[in-house]
Design brief:
The complex is a heterodimer of chains A (397) and B (370). With 397 residues, chain A is of the alpha/beta class. Helix content of chain A is 18%, strand content 27%. In chain A, helix 2 links the parallel strand 4 and strand 5. Chain B folds into 2 domains: 262 residues, Spore Coat Polysaccharide Biosynthesis Protein SpsA, Chain A; 84 residues, UDP N-Acetylglucosamine Acyltransferase, domain 1 (3 Solenoid), CATH 2.160.10.
Chain lengths: 397, 370
């Protein structure tokens, strides 16, 4: 029997995520921490393994160190396989036709040989920008049932936001008759989630044609999908109704974190029927001290809390000293909030130290803006950082 | 460091905590919120550079195998060495081993195949963070046959123990097997860890078979005290001997002290099985004071001076004080626990009041539904 994989996933993880500002100065967007102990890429990787897809190419380009280190051999996601498993695909040199990845389609095109190695019938294209739980196997089933050449996962978005997305205009049977990339006057509210299933040979053909086209920007949304539609290929939408959040902006990243909180959270990350796997920190249970107050919050292992934590998400090994107050904030792994400091409505990146009695951010209200403190910086004692500021360097007194 | 392999005895000393080992080994007793006792033993070995570890089990070892898996969580899934399970093995006419010496006699094949110079033998009745490399270094420097690790502390409730006397140089000159000791008195106690030359151990075992010896302590250490070069290594760090239910409770509670926590966990190098639980969630009404909370917990009630293992749910109005609540327990609304140890998968329904005292904590067995 010829060895093959029915479906190979290609995960686009090379994006800079420039709208996350300081959070992505040193790391790629899919490596950004989320939900106390996770990173964004845990979601597509967990969805893959939970859907029975065990061959995943991760295309990296921008600041790949943390991401590569995190993925490692894929063992945390059960993706360390002798045949298949997770593979980091970085840009490479060759005699001809190789360069930095120039667009989403070009990145996949440059790894045609990787996909062909597994002789797949289908290729699933994913991005590393979203928080969601989705059964790709169900989508693949729909793709086979409609006999489509390409199936695009789609979700209803509010009309006011529709012009931020690729909008699918569909017939009642779900087939797509028009594809509009970020339309000014959207005709529908069905947005592409950036999740595509292609029949492999069709994809290979169109990628080769796209590469040969000097006028193409080598992007799936702008070039490949419209080209397929114009050529009359069968393209279907696949409706998804669950939680799906693009965490490409500071505000949406903050919101998605907060969606984990509450009695019946918008997004149930503890769902045992669809486990989100991750590389786990090596830390003891968190300790809540005699003066600690923790309410409506999510706290990862290794934290030591002697202050007040409300409506917040704390990554592993965060220290909140006596009298410090953390409210409506996301504090990533290794943060130290020293005695008497206050942190409100902020995202504090990994390994940041906030000095004694420093004041970071303002109470959350409709006019407030989120403060962002970048990776590893030190904030001196008593410093005030007002609303909406972003810092990437130490803040001195 | 000179090369050494480890041998862990998973089942010894179970008579001291019969409740906890009813359905598991000494090694797999849950400890400290997200660990089992063997995690400390294995982590000490791995962190000291020992990457071949034989795990001797005699019975009830299903939970242990489930916990250990391939050994990858301790970095012990190796091509050369790694974690090697040594379950009981006997010829038709042999009976199953019951003593340390008989157990060692059943693994001479494993000991023979390895090339390392030393063997570190350790039981699973204690929790500590010790650099074994230091013990081996002393063993080498003294050119000892056997080095016994001792700790100066209260004798406690052990059924069997050894008190060690040594001269200024550390050479052992007196071994007393379970002598009568006034309660609360401190002494140099053997903490069931020793270093021994591998080839020497093989000779000892072979010799014991011909002489019909059965007790390592009685027939070898005590009888041959003068002819063997037995030294002691005085371990001065934090040691939690699990020799009774009260000691189990007391030592778990000591983890609420920052100093103890820092010594054991400060370097963040105690490994355990990964379960991929979500981080713990604290509700609007949660009141948590001086407690250790593991991942996957959901807390809506009051938790004070307690240790919660993974996946524990504490409902609204519930009050958990001075208690150890193991994995996947559900504590119902308005239920109160004080000085209680609940084993895994216990469900305490609404409006129950359960209590013990710190010297006699109330123990609820695994899987109980109240």
């Amino acid at each position: 029997m010829q060895r093959k994989k029915e479906c190979v996933a290609m995960l686009l993880a090379g994006g800079q995520g420039s709208r996350l500002y300081a959070l992505t100065t040193n790391i790629a967007k899919p490596a950004v921490a989320f939900g106390a102990k996770y990173r964004i890429i845990d979601f597509p990787l967990s969805n893959c393994i939970n859907s029975g897809i065990d061959t995943v190419g991760v295309l990296t380009q921008y600041q790949p160190l943390v991401l590569n280190e995190y993925i490692g051999n894929g063992q945390p996601w059960d993706l360390d396989r002798t045949y298949g498993g997770v593979h980091i695909l970085s840009p490479y040199q060759a005699k001809t036709n190789s360069s930095w990845y120039e667009g989403t389609a070009n990145a996949i095109y440059q790894n045609l040989h990787f996909m062909k190695m597994y002789n797949p019938e289908y290729v699933l294209v994913l991005s590393g920008d979203h928080i969601y739980k989705m059964d790709y196997a169900a989508m693949l089933k729909a793709h086979k049932a409609t006999g489509a050449d390409c199936t695009i996962a789609a979700i209803n978005v509010p009309l006011s936001e529709a012009s931020r997305f690729g909008i699918l205009n569909t017939n009642p049977d779900g087939s797509i008759y028009q594809f509009e990339e970020k339309p000014k006057a959207p005709k529908s509210t069905l947005a592409s989630m950036g999740i595509y299933i292609f029949s492999a040979q069709k994809l290979f053909n169109y990628l080769e044609a796209d590469d040969a086209n000097p006028n193409s920007s080598k992007d799936f949304g702008k070039d490949v999908l419209p080209a397929m539609l114009n050529a009359g290929e069968k393209m279907y939408s696949y409706r998804f109704d669950g939680y799906w959040k693009d965490v490409g902006t500071i505000a949406s990243l903050w919101e998605a974190n907060m969606d984990l909180l509450g009695d019946s959270p918008e997004f149930d990350i503890a769902d045992k029927s669809w486990k989100i796997h991750s590389r786990n920190p090596l830390a003891p249970p968190e300790h809540i001290g005699e003066n600690g107050v923790v309410k409506n919050s999510m706290v990862a292992l290794g934290c030591e809390i002697n202050g007040v934590v409300e409506n917040s998400i704390l990554g592993s090994n965060v220290i909140v000293e006596d009298g410090a107050v953390v409210k409506d904030a996301v504090v990533l792994a290794g943060g130290v909030i020293k005695a008497g400091a206050s942190v409100s409505y902020s995202i504090i990146d990994e390994n940041v130290t906030v000095g004694k009695k420093a004041n970071i951010g303002v109470p959350k209200d409709p006019t407030a803006e989120i403060v962002v403190l970048g990776r590893g910086i030190n904030v001196a004692d008593g410093v005030t950082v007002s609303k909406g500021q972003m810092h990437e360097k130490d803040i001195l007194a | 460091m000179a090369s050494a392999i480890g041998i862990i005895f998973a089942n010894l000393h179970e008579e001291n905590v019969p409740e906890l080992v009813r359905r598991r080994t000494m090694a797999s007793i849950p400890y400290g919120g997200r660990y089992r006792i063997i995690d400390f033993v294995l982590s000490n070995m791995v962190n000291s550079g020992i990457t071949t570890v034989g795990l001797m089990t005699s019975n009830n070892y299903r939970s242990l195998i489930d916990h250990i898996g391939s050994g990858k969580d301790w970095d012990l899934a190796r091509k050369d060495g790694g974690l090697i399970l040594l379950p009981p093995f006997s010829e038709k006419h042999d009976k199953l081993y019951t003593t340390r010496l008989e157990a060692l006699n059943s693994v001479t094949g494993f000991l023979n195949r390895r090339k390392e110079k030393y063997v570190v033998l350790t039981d699973c009745d204690g929790v500590m963070r010790v650099d074994i490399a230091n013990i081996i270094e002393q063993h080498e420097n003294k050119n000892a046959d056997i080095t016994l690790v001792t700790h100066y502390g209260k004798v406690g409730n052990r059924a069997d123990f050894m008190l060690i006397g040594a001269d200024k140089d550390g050479r052992v000159n007196e071994i007393k097997l379970s002598p009568h000791v006034e309660s609360g008195k401190k002494a140099d106690i053997f903490i069931n860890m020793m270093v021994i030359n591998r080839q020497f151990l093989l000779n000892l075992v072979e010799d014991s078979v011909t002489h019909g010896f059965s007790s390592f302590e009685g027939d070898i250490l005590i009888k041959q005290l003068d002819s063997l070069k037995i030294y002691r290594y005085d371990y001065q760090g934090y040691y939690a001997g699990i020799d009774s239910m009260a000691a189990y409770y007391k030592h778990n509670m000591e983890l609420l002290n920052k100093e103890v926590r820092d010594e054991l966990f400060g370097a963040r190098d105690i490994y355990t099985k990964v379960r991929d639980s979500a981080p713990s969630k604290y509700g609007e009404a949660a009141v948590v004071k001086n407690s250790l909370i593991s991942d996957g917990c959901e807390i809506e009630g009051v938790v004070e001076n307690s240790i919660l293992f993974r996946g524990v749910k504490v409902a609204k109005g519930a009050v958990v004080r001075n208690s150890i609540v193991m994995q996947d327990n559900i504590i119902g609304q308005k239920t109160s626990l004080d000085c209680v140890i609940t084993d895994k998968n216990v469900v305490v329904s609404d409006r129950k009041t359960l209590g013990g005292c710190s010297t006699l904590p109330y123990y609820i067995p695994k899987g109980t539904r109240l």
